[in-house]
Design goal:
Rossmann fold, CBS-domain, 3 domains, five-stranded parallel sheet, elongated
């Protein structure tokens, strides 16, 4: 006979949930754990014809773990509470733990500090399955692990996914069990006890920001989460506070609070005062590509029975509002440039052009053609190289013109092909992509029609685009 005993406490209306959970335990533990479900003939439990309460007392006295199937606060949990209370009787020499399988939004207040398994949260279920199958002390009187698995064995995650899916078919849709989870954002439900809420309410909003953050850091407990393991780099459990998240992300608690936490704490502080969080300087937890993960408090709730509050927080992936290239470009009337239809290349002396660029601190100059169309980007380094080479050969460089420079085929090709063009509706992202698509390109022209045949409206350099 197995030395491990697990008792499933549940309301009669939740029989399907209890049986689904019990069947999972029975199968995955290969019979090493004896599972009691009083309402089902498929599992061990009190039987018809015998006094029920004495049987329950004997069964619970032999139990290592009680799993309470908890659905909704609106139900009457008196009998289940009696079962759990009997199991954890301090006078009992055989210790018993209570695990809450939370199927809805809230858990039972009498067991707020006990292990809770969130039925619709894969991370939460995975941690439970790890403890059930590979924990050394989950069943104290069982020698060794239930199954000889390593906690990181991928089979654990597979089993957890199976349990989550099986439960979703029997948990009522009103509790969120059978609905499809389409969220793409990491989620935290942060809970503060009554005392912490009252401390925040008593603080002056303008001067108490640092103390508010300290309270939230130390007492803000994460009671529910989703899609957070990849975000934070570790699994959330029942002991996780926001302080632990900060310690992990900062590699040390002595560092200054990061911007994302200051923003989150201000949102929670305002919500604790039952105020809408206006004027918040939102800050990203992390930037991924062109998106920033912004912690955003979407909902708060106060429990009148005990005064605690919960704050639903999503790490929302937001892309910045598109910035038009026209709003950042240097317009032609502001930019230092040359127009060949107004001043021919033969009339633009290279020594003077070089001096003008040196005086203006410019490394290159746009050259426009007929009607202000983009033609070339002339690089100062190429002018220097051209003048230097001819000077060594004894050429009178004082008479050199831009036409002489453009007469060199390699030079002309480089100047003509090292620029990109976008239209007036292009964003800065579009302009950067256009620049990246052209080899050796550092400049983007914005033209009226987005082609090289259109008049130039303005000029963007690589520095501006970066």
């Amino acid at each position: 006979m197995s030395d491990a005993h697990l008792f499933v406490s549940h309301k009669h209306t939740d029989k399907a949930i209890a049986e689904t959970f019990a069947q999972f335990v029975k199968e995955k533990t290969a019979g090493r754990v004896k599972v009691y479900v009083s309402s089902s003939p498929d599992f061990d439990g009190p039987r018809v014809g015998k006094s029920l309460n004495p049987q329950l007392r004997n069964t619970l006295a032999a139990t290592d773990v009680v799993v309470l199937i908890y659905t909704s606060e609106s139900n009457d949990w008196q009998y289940c509470m009696w079962e759990c209370g009997l199991a954890i009787n301090p006078a009992d020499e055989r210790p018993t733990d209570v695990v809450v399988l939370q199927c809805g939004e809230t858990g039972p207040r009498p067991f707020a500090d006990d292990l809770r398994v969130i039925a619709h949260d894969l991370d939460s279920i995975t941690m439970f399955v790890q403890e059930l199958l590979t924990g050394d002390d989950f069943f104290p009187r069982l020698e060794g692990k239930v199954i000889d698995f390593n906690q990181e064995d991928p089979t654990i995650r597979k089993y957890a996914q199976e349990l989550k899916e099986d439960l979703s078919t029997v948990i009522p849709a009103s509790l969120g069990g059978s609905q499809t989870d389409l969220t793409s954002s990491a989620f935290l439900r942060i809970e503060l006890p009554k005392e912490s809420v009252e401390e925040i309410e008593a603080l002056d909003e303008s001067t108490g920001a640092e103390i508010t953050r300290k309270i939230i850091r130390e007492h803000g407990k994460i009671v529910e989460s989703d899609l957070t393991t990849a975000l934070f780099g570790f699994a959330i459990d029942e002991t996780t506070t926001l302080g632990k998240v900060l310690d992990k992300s900062q590699k040390g608690a002595s560092l200054e609070d990061p911007g994302w936490f200051k923003s989150l704490a201000k949102q929670i502080g305002l919500a604790a005062r039952e105020r809408y969080p206006q004027g918040i300087a939102y800050a990203p937890y992390r930037v991924e590509g062109d998106k920033s993960l912004i912690p955003y408090v979407t909902r708060s709730r106060r429990f009148e029975a005990d005064g605690r509050m919960q704050f639903d927080t999503y790490f929302v992936p937001l892309a910045p509002a598109p910035i038009l290239a026209t709003s950042r470009m240097v317009t032609t009337d502001q930019a230092f440039h040359k127009r060949l239809d107004k001043t021919p290349a033969t009339a633009i002396g290279l020594p003077q052009l070089k001096n003008d660029m040196d005086d203006d601190g410019r490394s290159r100059v746009p050259v426009l053609g007929e009607g202000g169309t983009p033609q070339y980007i002339i690089h100062l380094s190429m002018i220097d190289k051209f003048i230097s080479n001819l000077s060594i050969k004894g050429t009178d460089v004082t008479t050199l013109t831009l036409a002489d420079l453009l007469a060199v085929d390699d030079m002309r090709q480089l100047f003509a092909n090292s620029l990109a063009v976008v239209g007036p509706e292009a964003t800065m992202t579009d302009a950067r992509a256009a620049m990246d698509a052209v080899e050796n390109c550092q400049d983007v022209f914005v033209t009226r029609d987005g082609t090289r045949d259109g008049a130039v409206l303005g000029w963007l350099t690589n520095v501006t685009l970066m």
